[in-house]
Amino acid sequence: MGIPRNPLRKLMFRRLMKNKLSVAGGIIVAALFLVAVLAPVISPYNPNDIDRFHILEKPGIHHPLGTDDLGRDILSRMIWGARISLSVGFVAVGIATLIGILFGAIAGYYGGWPDMIITRFIDIMLSIPTFFLILAVIAFIGSGIFNIMAVIGFTSWMGVARLVRAEFLTLKERDYVLAARALGASDMQIIFRHIMINSMAPVLVSAVLGIAGAVLVESALSFLGIGVQPPTPSWGNILTLGKDNIEIAWWLSVFPGLAILITVLGYNLLGEGIRDAIDPRLWESERK
Amino acid sequence: MLKYLLKRLFQMVPTLIGITLISFFIIHLAPGKPTDVLADFNPKITPEARERLEKYYGLDKPVIVQYGMWLRRIVKLDFGESFSSDRRPVMQKLWDRKQPLIDRRLFITFMLNVLSMVIILLISIPIGITSATHRNSLYDRITTTTVFIGFAMPSFWFALLLMMLFGIHLGWLPISGLKSMNYAVLSPAGQVWDRVSHLILPVFIASFGGLAGDSRYMRSSMLEVIRQDYITVARAKGLTEKVVIYRHALRNALLPLITLVGLSIPGLIGGSVIMESVFGIPGMGQLLFMSVMTRDYPMIMCVLTIGAVLTLVGNLLADLGYMLADPRIRNQ
Amino acid sequence: MRKIIVFCLLLFLLATACKGRPKAVMTPLPGNGAEPPEYGDALVEGTIGEPSNLIPMLAGDAASHSVSGMIYNGLVKYDTDLSVIGDLAESWDISPDGLVIVFHLRKGVKWADGVEFTSDDVMFGFKTIIDEKTPTAYKEDFLQVKKAEAPDKYTFKVTYGKPFAPALTSWGSLVVLPKHLLEGKDITKSDMVRNPVGLGPYKLSRWTPGQELILDSYADYFEGRPYIDKYVYRVIPDSATMFLELQAGGIDMMGLTPVQYTKQTENEFYRTNFRKFRYPVFSYTHMAFNLKHPLFRDKRIRQAIAYAIDKSELVDVVLYGLGSPATGPYVPNTWPYNPDVKKYGYDLEKAKQLLKEAGWSDSDGDGILDKDGLPFTFTILTNMGNNLRKNTATIIQWRLAKIGIRVEIKALEWSTFVNEFIDKRRFEAVIIGWSIGLDPDQYDIWHSSKTKEKEFNFIGYNNPEVDALLEQGRRTFDLEKRKKAYFRIQEILADELPYIFLYVPDATPIVHARFRGIKPAPIGISYNQPKWYVPKRLQRHGMEQ
Known about the structure:
- The complex is a heterotrimer.
- Chain A has a single domain (about 40-265), classed as MetI-like (MetI-like fold, Orthogonal Bundle), CATH 1.10.3720.
- Chain A has 14 helices and no strands.
- Chain A has helices at about 5-20, 20-35, 40, 75-110, 110-125, 130-140, 145-155, 160-170, 175-180, 185-200, 200-225, 235-245, 250-275, 280-285.
- Chain B folds into 2 domains: about 1-95, no CATH class; about 100-330, MetI-like fold.
- Helix content of chain B is about 75%, strand content about 0%.
- Chain B is built from 14 helices and no strands.
- In chain B, α6 (about 105-135) runs antiparallel to α11 (about 240-280) and α8 crosses α9 (about 190-225).
- In chain C, strands 1, 2, 13, 14, 15, 16, 19, 20, 21, 22 and 23 form an 11-stranded mixed β-sheet that branches.
- In chain C, a hairpin with a 3-residue loop joins β10 and β11 (about 210-215).
- The chains are: A mainly alpha, B mainly alpha, C alpha+beta.
- Chains in contact: A-B, A-C, B-C.
- At the B-C interface, α2, α8, α11 and α12 of B face β12, α6 and α13 of C.
């Protein structure tokens, strides 16, 4: 990895662009971002405006994607829901990644008993069916959006921790790290300036895939009736509403269902593409 | 071999203790006391009765002491009594000896997960291999997209769509539950089909959702092996591509998958909450959800512990499988 | 049947539907000719929750009561017109002062195991329910009894210390237990919890946990063998799945949600294959304020909120019109209901004006009212998993935003909700429902002595006049006097608004069209279930083995 970074990035990017599926994934992800950012501008209605005279209305001119059981405009709720679903994904994955990097770095860099304790902790967390834990905690502390983000984050950091630990184990013996140490760089400097940057690629892949997972977890929680609180729209709770009206209001389940499907698919294809594009050694390190 | 097995079993103990410790603390740190729940169902419960209960569960002591007491009872496989108004031992709710095996909750969830896992492997290994050997072809792209669609589809939604299609419009398959109303009067063959037909949709959906992980892993694993020197050598020796792939490459590519299968167990068990709720299947996941919604602490702890034990045993089996399959370890 | 005052999930209420009032609506059914009753067939009812305990006095959930109601009978029951008639008691005498009731029991009634039912069984049940070791929520009525006696096998006599108006109706199905099977045992650990021996129209034949309960008809039932051989409860935890099962023929009967009743079953298929029923449930949904909270101490604030909520909108949107706006704690068209109380029509101007009078205005222009620098914002709590309540809260939130009040909604798992928030008084406002008995006594809900932790006056309501009226109402048997007391209570409540009474929902069960003999009545449809039948040619399940 001592080679200059720019050419490598260019190479990786070229490999990524060659993969049509991941390009499609990237476009989906980018489009979603745009929708989420522009929500206040492009949303035709206030997503929370109730309208008793237009309940469960079919898609039409006034409501392109129909209305829900409180007469709210589905298109607007979908657009704002993109924000919620994506921010759940991002914050949850952000938390997970931070914890994972912290634990992984400590374990990989210092080795010894910190490593032993952290690895054991990772093994333990990996053996708990985490969805059970998420369920219990959300039911007890209440299903606010921040609770959901935090709980998903705190139960999904193990993969990242493993990756980072493995990267550190291999990278810390590399020449350039040894050189930096010989030059008197502190642990922190070495960790952040030299090793961390070089181990970011696999973490990125795992984060991209993690966002997809978090979007699915949110919809599962909504299905069980413990998703984000009303009136906040999320794809999960629109879809759950659709479930109860599946035979008379197809639009309530088809649109959010497809949105989740396409989003998760997009993130996965993109993530896989990046994984393919960067060093194949990644497969090595993932394997314990 | 035996020594290794014993060592592994021994190692499982601290992990298991860690799992229960974490679960116990997370659940007990949430506000409220479990005896409040009892009092909720029985609002007129007397102070004495409550005291008796608190003492029985040791709730007057610090959480760590309570954990110690819980652990001591678990060693005797006593998970306590459910807080729901039937007050049954929680273990009995999970594994009711009065019911036939196929109607016991733990067995139902276990069976569904094993079935799904077998089907996932049976489909995803070939997909992984062929998409690796046909890398970047149209076939590769189609399978990739298909398995990811399976992963990306919210399972409860997909389940309802299929229930409507096969249960109502076509009328081919039952909608929910584990057996039909007229089960008792069916012929033995009819009974078997009745059971099987109830499992088709849940198992199909759980499997479809799980294809992505294993098949993609298989694909990358295969790709890596194909690049190795000994495969090049085998090709150079003039062996047919079939022999190269299936005799030489496959075995080595399969190895890492075994570990992945072990790791995927908690995800499958976790997903059973959704599947069992949609299909009205009385398994462990459904029981967990009900106990969470009524704050039935002993029941929750029991399900979490059993789930963890299943995972650990699964991991152990995976490791043993790895050993048996890997000549380097086997011959040591 | 019993004066139970328990919080009750609306969902379960809709599913059980055992109480009601006049004007049940029936959808027309073609081909419902007069065919003679026949024995046979099975009725499969879908239930979201699984029963937990089949001893009625120990059970807290609607599913348990629904099933145990098939297995046990009481001394008295309600007739179709809501008057009290004998069940296991053939007749009874009440002393002129109302303090003594003597029940004359039916002779020759047998428990399912062949042992004769006698006054000892009632005595045993009574002793059990008042025993402090028995964890039951229904003790209160029986603690009013000063003395109980069983002078002979067929006579049971109770003496009250003070006149107690709900006395007679309290002797429903809670206290009849087989003494010969339970005596000397810890009732909570008894086998009867899951394998009951009763004397009602059906007996439990098999219970597969999480799947189904199969009840067989009891051939020696004292009112005659029920026509339908088997009554099956199928546990299906998801309402969308249950509805698909109904369509596919997997179940014969379920409680419909409002949208299922009004939209999903309005087609040819359902009109030919099913019959729908509709009648009000004895319950009301309301928003309760924590009167100890500074925000809600001022009556004008509570009235302003009432003016800002459009109850007809709630009924139309949340219930699809299947219910009626509530004005007080009684169900319309019942004798204690006072139709002439102060009503709060939707009136934004009045609401704003009242708030202004109370000192709230939007002085910083952020759209939210404030007073002394504090914004007007509060949280509505409700329980998870109840879609109707969630929608109610969402609409109220939206409506209140229009007068500058910011509302957060928080849904909590039921026991956390009750134990951590209701019982500990840690709430600002809650949306829940009360399931009320047929007797109008609501002492536990409104009396100022009932405000301690875990008691039902959780909002801290305290009005000496209401206290006195509640006492009056339960200490006389004179219907006119009672009516006067309860009418006055409703006037006071309507003015002070400790609760905003939102709506009374309707029960909307659906039953497969092959079942005959269903006679909708004020108390619903299930009361004569043993008399339902299926003509031979239409019988579907032949499960005789």
